[in-house]
Amino acid sequence: MLKESLRMSLCNIKANKMRSFLTILGIIIGVMAIIALITVMESATGEVTAQFESLGTGKLTVQAGGTALKNGLRETDLRRIEALENVSGISPTLSQSLSVVLDGELLEDVTVKGNGWAYFRHTPDAVAKGRPLLPIDFEQLSRVCLIDSDLAHELFSGIEPIGQQLLVKGTRFTVVGLLADPDVDDVMSMMQQSGGNGSLVMPYTTYMRLFGVKGVTGLEVYVADTDRTDDTVDALERLLDESFNYHDRSYSVINMENLLDVMDTMMGLMTNLLVGIASIALLVGGIGIMNMMLVSVTERTAEIGLRKALGAKPRSIQLQFLMESVILSLLGGMLGVALGLMVSKLLSNLMNIAFVFSPGAVALGVGFSLAVGVIFGWAPARKASNLNPIDALRSV
Fold it and tell me: Which of the 8 DSSP states describes residue 73?
């Protein structure tokens, strides 16, 4: 019975090719939209997540504006933060634009930065040549620095920069390393790119002593065990509260992992919203299938009456029409999946993001189309099975 019902359903679909195509068009559009939206959103989410992770999970960013009585964090505060349990290192963020001198030649608009050794330990590819800043440089307030390729080109064109000396605010610094060129496709690198004639990085302790900096307003705190990040944040906030005498809005602590969680939640909500909107097209397609099946029942009233008169059971008639509805819906679903993957691949290329194949999106699209075929084909199939054979034969 199942094989015969399938054969008759396919024969009826082939006999009305144009009407069948127009009927499943809504299903094709709906499934295509769902596949494309979910796939593109997952691809975009993966890209954004990778960019956020490049900013450094396992790292806390502290902004400490301080109070009217205390501007920023003092050296003693920095030592206390570094001594906290589960803190593997700190790196204050200090920066200003200055002039540097080499052999009596003045170069203006150079970005001079102060960083912690923990930054180089957690960013091993930050140094292209030479050595990074070491803990001993910070302990001894060493007058050493690293320069980027722009500054090396401006000052040491055609000369090996490592080992050379230059003047910063009248103090002689020895170049011990060359910073790696930033990748412009990376968010963190874009944030670290300097303007003007390049940048120079020295130990933050040397920077504070050289420029008389008493308070640090920006700080990166590296976490040893990311599973204990929340406990570390609590301990850090308690210490900052004490440092600023529990003054409101004197500091903020940004946890990148929390930002990632918020981003994932927002992207998930956005995906669900877009899928809900795209599902409207599936609803319209389902109504189209129901309309066609009702028309088909009306056109084939005589056939139904004759089959019943010859002994066909209502169940077999219902199965035939329901199967026809499911076949139409699944056919539209498969075409929609193929087109959706093509569209999502095209959009990923246009947006310059990696295409991510989503089996879940394909399963959702096919499942939706199957559900539409069953739900919207049930009523016409039920109507066909309930036809009185005598009334049906009168229409012959």
Answer: B
Share of the chain above pLDDT 70, in %: 88
Cα 147 to Cα 261: distance, rounded to the nearest angstrom? 36
Q: Does residue 95 surpass a pLDDT of 80?
A: yes
Coil, strand or helix at 79 = helix
pLDDT > 90 in the chain, percent:
23
Rounded Cα distance between 294 and 305, Å, is 16
Strands 218-223 and 165-168: unpaired
Q: Quick one: DSSP state of residue 212?
A: T
Alpha-carbon distance 224 to 220, whole Å? Answer: 13
Average pLDDT over residues 21-41: 84
What Å distances lie between residue 354 and 41, 45, 48, 247, 363, CA to CA? Answer: 11, 10, 11, 46, 21
Write down the H helix ranges in 57-134. 75-82, 117-122
State residue 185's pLDDT score.
Answer: 40
Side-chain half-sphere CA neighbours of 46 within 13 A: 13
**Cα–Cα distance between 209 and 173 in angstroms, integer?**
14
Nearest to 9 by CA among 282, 333, 300, 308: 300
The three-state secondary structure class of 201 is strand
Model confidence pLDDT, tens digit, residues 124-174: 888 999 999 999 999 999 999 999 999 999 999 888 999 999 999 999 999
Q: In the 8-state DSSP scheme, what is residue 308?
A: H
Cβ pair 111, 198 in contact under 8 A? yes
Instruction: Tell me how far apart the alpha carbons of residues 394 and 161 are, in angstroms, rounded to a whole number.
Output: 101
- With CA atoms as reference, report the closest residue to 195 among 111, 280, 259, 273: 111
SS3 131: coil
d(CA 91, CA 143): 18
* Cβ pair 218, 113 in contact under 8 A: no
* Separation between Cα atoms, residue 275 and residue 272, nearest integer Å: 5
Instruction: Check: CB of residue 179 under 8 Å from CB of residue 201.
Output: yes
- In sequence order, what are the beta bridge partners of 221? 60, 90
Whole-angstrom Cα distance, residue 179 to residue 194?
12
pTM beyond 0.70: no
Q: Per the structure block, which two tokens stand in for 115?
A: 């960083």
